[in-house]
Amino acid sequence: LEQMQQGTLMRKVKSKSWKKQRFFKLQDDCMTIWYQSKRTGKTEQASPPSAPVSISDVETVREGHQSEVLQSLAEEFPPERCFTIVFYGRRGNLDLIAGSAEEAQCWVQGLRQLIEPRSFPLTFALISLTWIRDWFQKADKNKDGRMNFKEVQRLLKMMNVDMNEDHALRLFQDADKSESGTLEGEEFVLFYKALTQREEVLSLFQEFSEDGKKLTLLELVDFLRQEQLEDEGTEEMAMELIDKYEPSETARVRHVLSADGFLMYLCSPEHNTYLIEDQLRGQSSIEGYIRALKRGCRCLEVDCWDGPNGEPMVYHGHTFTSKIPFREVVSTLGKYAFKASDYPVILSLENHCSMEQQEVLAQQLKDILGEQLLTTTIDGHVPSHLPSPEELKHKSLLKGKKIGRLEDTLDGPGDEVPDVSDDDNGAEAEEERRRAKKDKETLAQALSDCVIYCKNVSFRGFQEARSHSRPSEISSLSEAKARKLIRDAGNEFVRHNAWQLTRIYPSGMRTDSSNYSPQEMWNAGCQIVALNFQTAGTEMDLCDGLFSQNGCCGYVLKPPFMRDEETLFNPSDPSSREGPGPITLTIQVISGQQLPKVANSKDGAIIDPLVRVEIHGVPADQAHQETKYIENNGFNPRWDETLQFQLHVPELALVRFVVEDYDKTSRNDFVGQFTLAFANIKPGYRHIHLLSKDGTSIPPSSLFVHIRITE
């Protein structure tokens, strides 16, 4: 970055013939790049692309000849000197050729570093006042020393300061002491400070800082140990934090952290180890599959029916209105299955096709997915247990009916109905023969052969399942059936799920695509709990929360007491879990930052926010508590309230933070939420970055909390 701040001479390329030397320089704020023509030393004031490049507008950096223009120059300039800066939105790419491979690498790596931490709103960068004044002068186009609200908004965007327009306008009006509708230099400084200052963080900073102006390395180490409960390598960690978050060069050199740096650290992704894909806003049904896969979903239900011209079709949902060719769904699976995760995807086939079109289904799966489709066990032998997701990376598994047993597929298909081994008694052998014969009449062999580890079998009770235990079989149960089993035989259900897969699906009565609570199914160890991904709400929040652990890979290991086939655990009796006693979770809800307005609020009223913390887990742990509401303040409400919870089975608990707009006459309105697994909670002072109803982020909205966990 320092090399970039000193500036580099590079060629800017627009076409094969237009390639001109320009001097590129990263500004001290590390948020913009200015460039000027070599000749005059003047900053280019020409057309928009030569406006300063704001780091917040950069989407990605591509190395080598990755644009048409650079490809056309491939003979002239080697790829290691070329790179392309790609912007969000409509702005054209910037193609550059550096003087050497080292210089190109310096800019490529530097830019990537700068766009990485984008996830923390730089609202909080309380950089020195001189820096703010410099910006003001740069943006004051007509040099009259004043700026109206539109210009101020543009300036904040250039400064990479996230803001909520309503809050910004109110603060603008407060800072406009002269009531001229514009801000002068000093008024702007006041406005900027008001927009970004955080009293509660400042007082925390002063608690640990002897002179109230900086944290020395040792003071920062004290904070990390006492408050954040970090106990290993804290000195190195403190050094790294200063290097990473301290905006002032002089402070960095002296290994101290200013209040600005402290705030940037507290708002950084170090605390917020989650990433959620922006959801595509599409209408076609194929979009639903793409969105679910990009969100990390690992099991898709595909409802197949005979279509015209011998092409099987997929009906989407209960409506039977939108239908798409099966081949399109499979191509989508091929393209998007492993975008969010490398781990296996299961295609749950609801097959209503004729024999002829089943042959087409099998052919399309093989042709389109190729190697990606699993067509035999990983070692060619009959499994005594299921392989781990690690062994099935980048594979798609078909779940569906199968003729006979897995053994028969491995021995090669024969016409005879499978033989039954001697240890089965006669009646059962007969039953198995009868079933295989019936399946042969309705199921195409080619499609049956694609089913390896997920053969659908009807659930006929835990005893029967146990006596015919086959790890490659899976039963699907409706939510109502599963609830009854949990109620009547909780422990047996947990044991069953220790050696066999169970899939739960929403009741057919839910024609509105609503969801049931997945938590009670997870409490019993059910592995595949199907939800309507397109329906936002608490249930999908819990799903995102549970699977945000383990790197969002779509698979989470069950706790040890649910993987033991002899376990005594029963979700309705927490004392059945072996291990330490209950845990106390104490959450101090301190403050909120720039909460969004409620979507359908009348006349853009300011919200009266309250925070509710919910625990979702075994029945004994289900609980929620809320703070009082703060009147008319969505900008920086302070609650300073402490909520406390007892958790008997913390391994299964999820914690959901919800912000609502209090309404005394009707239901409170939803403002934002964030859900995470208890196992992922870090103690100490943390910012919780809120998500909207559909799981997308809404920067810079956050909650500032302090968390303690005690046994």
Question: How would you summarize this macromolecular structure in one to three sentences?
Answer:
The chain has 711 residues and is α+β, with helices and mostly antiparallel strands. Residues 447-563 form the PI-PLC Y-box domain.
Question: What's the SSE blueprint?
Answer:
Blueprint (H helix, E strand, L loop, with lengths): L1 H5 L1 E6 L5 E8 L5 E6 L15 E2 L3 E6 L4 H5 L9 E6 L6 E5 L2 H15 L13 H11 L6 E3 H10 L6 H11 L6 E3 H12 L2 H10 L5 E2 L1 H10 L7 H12 L3 H5 L3 E2 H8 L18 H10 L4 E7 L7 E3 L7 E3 H11 L8 E7 L3 H15 L26 E5 L5 H5 L15 H17 L2 H4 L2 E6 L5 H6 L5 E6 H21 L1 E5 L13 H5 L4 E2 L8 H10 L35 E11 L15 E8 L6 E4 L11 E10 L6 E8 L7 E9 L6 E8 L5 E14 L1
Parallel strand pairs: 12-15, 15-16, 16-17, 17-18, 18-19, 19-20
Antiparallel strand pairs: 1-2, 1-7, 2-3, 3-4, 5-6, 6-7, 8-9, 10-11, 12-13, 13-14, 21-24, 21-28, 22-23, 22-25, 25-26, 27-28
